[in-house]
Amino acid sequence: MTRIDRRHFASGLALAGAALAAGATHGAAEAAAASGAPPATGAAARRDARPGAIDAPANLHRVYRRVRFAGDERIVFWWMRGRRYGFVDTVLTPFFDMHVGSMHRCRDLGDGRYEVRSASAMYHTDLAGGGLLEDWANPVTGRTVKFAYPAPTVVITTYSYADGVQDGPSPPGTKTERRHALAPLELVGEDAWLREESWLVVQYAASGRSQRVHDLHTFASPVAALRDAARAFVPASVHFNDYNGWSPRFEMGDAPGASVARCSGRKVATVDELPEAYLRIARRLHGEAFRDPARTLG
């Protein structure tokens, strides 16, 4: 496995305070092998080799940047809305609703690399009333858990168009190991699908415990927008699931079971396009960060 900081867009759901940045990928050949797709040969290989073909294996990471972020250095935003569940003895129990938002800006570094600065915040709300959860009644243990919501902090990630994300340090107090697979781009009618999977093990120094995290998400963008090389901002949506060991913030102790999330969302061009329910909480708790995203990202 590759040891790497937990910077993945969907990873922000699994670990409190983790940045909702993009996930890492290895080379296109490895991604194709992980997906089970055979290598292109004959006419297909010649077609894939065309400069600018969005489904060419050599262009996979360039397409990933345009889907996940932007082709230039503008700031883009992602939001996801969904629900977290507990999964105990094959029974799925709703825990709370989740509201996730993040901001990202790329900077070209040359030599086939680029940097992404990201900041994010995630909020949990009550299933019945929709209010922000600060005291959560854990249905597995029967105990009340205090939830805190850290302010967005900047995470910097470097990417290569040849290999995807570069290695980086683990978050303070943790050691992480991660494995990724990015499947070849799929053209489905007028849409392009990009499937990404990651497997993560987090070891916490303070408790000696570890947590396993499995993130699965599918991004979708219009084929026509991706084929327009002059278009820096490409619309995109995401569908996400994770399957995790208990997060330390749930205070599960030795209770058996796992945590599952189901979310969907979109990439938007301005902070004001984030959902009203999310912005209402974000501006109350972290108003400075969302008032001036450019300043927040630095």
Describe the structure.
By secondary structure, the protein is an alpha+beta fold. The chain is built from 7 helices and 13 strands. Strands 1, 2, 3, 6, 7, 8, 9, 10, 11, 12 and 13 form an 11-stranded antiparallel β-sheet that branches. A two-stranded antiparallel sheet has the order 4-5. The longest helix has 10 residues, at 276-285. Residues 1-49 have low confidence and may be disordered.
Short description:
This protein is α+β, with helices and mostly antiparallel strands and 298 residues long. It is built from 7 helices and 13 strands.
Looking at this protein, list some descriptive labels.
single chain, 298 residues, alpha+beta, 11-stranded antiparallel β-sheet, two-stranded antiparallel ribbon, 7 helices, 40% strand, disordered N terminus
